[in-house]
Write a structure and sequence with these properties.
394 residues, mainly alpha, two-stranded antiparallel sheet, elongated, 7tm6_olfct_rcpt, odorant binding, receptor, transmembrane helix, transmembrane
Length: 394
């Protein structure tokens, strides 16, 4: 698809295609419960979702109760840093199901906005949007699977189970066969978990990016208002009205995606500080070389989970702030009274800021990500000052 879109040959580009890979994985995981239910779909959904949403959080916690004394500290912290993330998956999954209809509605509204594009520059932006959206998702897959592969394979090469997950009837310390079975189950389970996380953590960044593109297209369209000398006053006024309707539709897109972002990012913010602090403690005090490498990949993953959405939200707000300036720079001076009166109304409404919040408490922007990182580092610095883990080293 990348090659065809980049050439722009034989492909009718829609901005909703930016989420094509995302929806391919959603369908693979059988998470779109608004589809027609069949036995095959039910079985696929039970295996793909039940394993991650129900069984894995339980098995991780049972492993601490069943074999807490058999963990070495490096292995324990590696397991805990993953368990914190895994225990948040059920909330993200439920949020995704509650608002899955919103994603389908958003795709329908995007098709309406796409149909408004007439200029070659606008078609180029749509094509670039489709390519970049899917690249964002591929990038998320690379980051997540780099962590799972490096952790599971690294620990297996050193003769240890990466997470020591409790699996009934299997004790990986008893024999080589049980060790291999344990390692393969953990590897497959963690890859499936990472596939889930790519959906929950990248959909917001992809859709915010798509909305950004449509805001940029609207900015350029507004700047051209009144500049076509072939149009009479009535035609220029109709173009202005259509631009106002496009802006209202973009605001509807924001309204549709905001509740999903609010819940998932709030959960992510709540656990990020704990995950970063736990990982830095593990790197500094307890982990071996393999554990340090896995933990570094995990830190990259944790930042990717919230940074993608927060970065796109920050850029979207910046793009939206340029709209009143674009309105001011259109050719409104030469237009009639009705056009100039409506342009004032348009400008006033575009000056209302677009704000995304996490749980209606924290702003979704890069400043929040940096604040969480500072909080985690402060906690880590405090523990280091107290010589946390010093006795273990001795």
């Amino acid at each position: 698809m990348f090659l065809a879109l980049s050439r722009g040959v034989g492909v009718k580009t829609q901005s909703s295609q930016a989420a094509e890979y995302l929806f391919n994985v959603i369908n693979f995981l059988a998470q779109d419960f608004h589809r027609k239910w069949t036995f095959g779909f039910f079985f696929q959904s039970f295996v793909a979702n039940g394993t991650v949403v129900l069984f894995m959080p339980i098995l991780f916690n049972l492993s601490y109760l069943n074999a807490s004394m058999q963990f070495d500290l490096g292995q324990l912290f590696t397991s805990i840093q993953a368990a914190i993330n895994i225990c948040a998956i059920p909330i993200k999954f439920i949020t995704m199901q509650l608002y899955m209809k919103n994603l389908h509605r958003i795709n329908e509204m995007l098709n309406i906005l796409d149909s408004r594009c007439k200029h070659p520059e606008e078609f180029n932006k749509l094509r670039h949007c489709a390519i970049t959206g899917n690249r964002i998702y591929v990038g998320a897959i690379i980051v997540y699977f780099s962590y799972s592969i490096s952790t599971c394979m690294g620990f297996m090469l050193t003769g240890q189970a990466a997470y020591n997950i409790y699996i009934p009837g299997i004790n990986w310390r008893n024999s080589l066969l049980e060790f291999v079975i344990q390692g393969l189950i953990e590897f497959a389970s963690m890859n499936l978990i990472c596939l889930h996380q790519t959906v929950y953590d990248s959909y917001s960044g992809i859709y915010l990016y798509i909305i950004r593109i449509h805001i940029q297209i609207l900015n350029e369209r507004v700047r051209r208002l009144g500049s076509n000398l072939k149009n009479d006053e009535k035609q220029s006024y109709e173009e202005l009205i259509q631009s106002i309707l496009d802006h209202k539709l973009i605001l509807r897109l924001v309204t549709a995606i905001s509740p999903m972002i609010s819940l998932t990012i709030f959960v992510q913010f709540a656990i990020t500080a704990a995950m970063l602090a736990t990982t830095m403690i593990n790197i500094s005090f307890f982990s071996n070389v393999v554990g340090r490498i896995a933990s570094i990949f995990y830190i990259i993953l944790v930042f990717a989970q919230s940074s993608l959405c927060c970065y796109q939200a920050t850029c979207l707000v910046s793009d939206a702030d340029e709209l009143p300036v674009s309105i001011f720079h259109c050719q409104w001076v030469q237009q009639g009274y009705r056009f100039r009166k409506m342009i004032i109304y348009f400008m006033v409404n575009t000056q209302k800021p677009i704000i995304f919040t996490a749980g209606k408490l924290f702003p979704v922007n890069m400043a929040s990500v940096l604040s969480i990182a500072k909080c985690s580092f402060s906690f880590y610095a405090l523990l280091k000052e107290m010589d946390f883990g010093g006795q273990d080293k001795d």
